[in-house]
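User: For my dataset I need records formatted as: sequence, then structure tokens, nothing else. Please produce one.
Assistant:
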Amino acid sequence: MALIVKKFGGSSVATTEKIKAVARRVLDGMKPEDKVVVVVSAMGDTTDDLIELARGIDKNPYHYAREMDMLLTTGEQVSIALLAMAFCSMGHKAISLTGAMVGMGTNSVHTKGRIVGIEPKRVEEALNEGNIVVVAGFQGADSFGDPVTLGRGGSDTSAVALAGALAADSCEIFTDVDGIYSADPRLVQGARKMQEITYDEMLEMARLGAGVMQPRSVEMGKHFGIPIHVRSTFTEKTGTMIREAYTMEEKDFEIRGLAHDDKVAKLAVMGVPNQPGVAHSLFSALADANVSVDMIVQSVRNIEHNVTDMVFTVAVDDLETAREIVEDVKKKLNAVSVLVEENVAKVSIVGVGMLGNPGIAARMFGALQKADVNIDIISTSEISISCLITKDKLKEAANAIHDEFFPRD
């Protein structure tokens, strides 16, 4: 007997025909004694459509974060009910449950919630009664009982967290690609599918823009020690395993993969007083509004006026909130101006192989030079290097860097 958690993304359940195909696939792969939990996202572009509806009321509806969560959590309720009906129509008991119903407890940070605990008693009871349990991903509830969403890709986190709480034997993430690639194959020619990748490398790639997995879901997998199998909904091929360490000869590499993010914006606060506490004033205000900041650079001090410039990036979804906060801080600090640039993108390389391997950064920068791509900002971690460039150069940059580290045959 095995307890298995399977997650299907929005493209996998985009139509009623696809929902029925998912139900058939799950049933075909089940052994009589298996217990199965299926976590699903909203159908197709439903979440985007709901956001557009909200923008018809206010151009920045995330000002009303709680109400956005009330709206967005309805998308998954449609898909879980339909999938449960599909299982029942095929002769198998099934029940649909929202995030709140499965005991998915979150903090109260609406639209960007974090899971603080899971009490899956109702899931266990339903499984013991012979049901396939169909769970709404992307959502939970705070201590007040209010719905809270987990951010883009949050269904991945729901699935891995449930697998951990249930001590599941495996967690499978079904998507519209057949695994994790060395780069986005829609952008980069010659991208290669990986057989396996470590939690740390996958976490870094996800954090830097690889859209296959949400970073928090990888954190959950590492925390619970659950291998995650990322595979295609539409084929039977083996996908990519995310686990603690390599079991094959895939560890002999310098760079594991390339990630990109074209949904970022750059803000520059010009003429900030060069004195203690200024950075804290700016970034604590952003943190209080739950705005994540990346790629922070402080310029060389202007000796004559004792001022400096502070440059950083945020996600496009947070831009309007960040802009308002920065404008307010600018007045308090008597800074000169605030500049915003949206035509930017981040391209990054990731791999534990760069540790103690000199010359990796030089090769990346050389590849960008050959592609005539200018670098605006550079940031590094132990296992990654990121460059901020103009968005219109992203394709050339990604292909040039990938060709440098993954030469085509």
